[in-house]
Design goal:
Length: about 300
């Protein structure tokens, strides 16, 4: 389905199941058949492909990701030719696409996905977003927060304050197996962002409704009619992907399902007048979404004591 869009670049947000062993990477990303399954090839763009690190890759020590998958990725026409690290940066004259590795230090302790010191050094001394700010799309495997009860990962967000505080940005993450569009959110740490969970690319898509109003969801893919039944009888949502287009100052995200049906699109451009960016983003949704809006929170029932009976 991704290959049908004929992209210039493709980006995988991480999690090669089940524990990211070399054999699993060969089967699930590089098209090698196993005794039980036909191999699947991760589609590459006409100019190249990238992949982030996830917690599942690190369950087996990252050997499949770092030693087998990364050497097949990157931009062949570039100086380095292959993806060298689990983090990277792509830039246009206006936009910056910044990908960070939240998987390297991930473990079973909720909230522990601290960014590695080498990554922080690279951000601080090579990319230097604080000294050279640009409209930014941040990519990661783990979410900062979840409205669906799947946990918050505070460490990466806290560490990114140094680099992205004082500007609005877009953050695309995976990890949760769903598609959800959050309302613009400003955290207590000063980060102001448009968060999107796009973890619905491969695994069975979960169909719960949002249940945490702390991080309000604007839209999500939860229509009971948009389902598929697996061989074991499980009813799950439809897989999908996101297509990003950058034309001059405008960055458009369009959300598709596995049948290449467009569900929703939105355009971001830098705020400000006369070409001077004021560190805000102007968002234009288009067209009216196929996705659902969350149900309103239940109204608390007021308890009224009965009036005393007259003697």
């Amino acid at each position: 389905m991704v290959a049908g869009a004929m992209p210039e670049l493709t980006i995988h947000l991480g999690d090669v199941y089940y524990v990211g062993e070399p054999a699993e990477v060969q089967e699930n990303c590089l098209g090698q058949n196993s005794k039980m399954y036909r191999g699947v090839t991760w589609p590459k763009g006409s100019k190249g492909s990238f992949a982030l690190n996830g917690n599942h890759e690190m369950y087996s020590g990252g050997h499949g990701y770092f030693e087998v998958f990364l050497p097949t990725l990157g931009i062949p026409a570039s100086q380095d030719k292959q993806q060298l690290r689990s983090y990277f940066c792509l830039e246009t004259p206006v936009w910056r696409i910044l990908a960070i590795d939240t998987g390297y230090n991930s473990d079973t302790l909720l909230g522990h996905c601290k960014l590695d010191d080498n990554l922080i050094h690279w951000l601080r001394n090579v990319i230097a977003p604080a000294n050279n700010p640009k409209p930014t799309v941040l990519l990661s495997h783990h979410q900062w927060f979840s409205a669906f009860g799947d946990g918050n990962y505070e460490s990466p967000a806290s560490q990114m304050v140094e680099f992205l505080s004082g500007q609005e940005f877009v953050w695309l993450w995976g990890h949760e197996h769903r598609l959800s569009i959050y309302k613009k959110f400003t955290g207590n740490n000063g980060l102001c962002l448009y968060a999107r969970c796009i973890g619905h690319g491969g695994m069975p898509v979960e169909r719960e409704d949002p249940r945490d109003a702390t991080h309000p969801v604007e839209l999500y893919d939860g229509d009971p009619a948009r389902t598929q039944t697996l061989d074991d009888g499980s009813v799950v949502g439809l897989n999908g992907y996101v297509q990003m287009k950058i034309q001059g100052a405008c960055l458009t995200l369009e959300y598709f399902d596995q049948d290449q049906k467009s569900l929703f699109a939105e355009t971001f451009r830098p705020g400000g007048a006369a070409g001077a960016w004021d560190r805000t983003l102007v968002r234009t949704p288009r067209p009216f979404p196929t996705l659902l809006t969350p149900p309103p929170p239940p109204v608390a029932q007021q308890q009224i004591a009965p009036a005393p009976m007259k003697p």
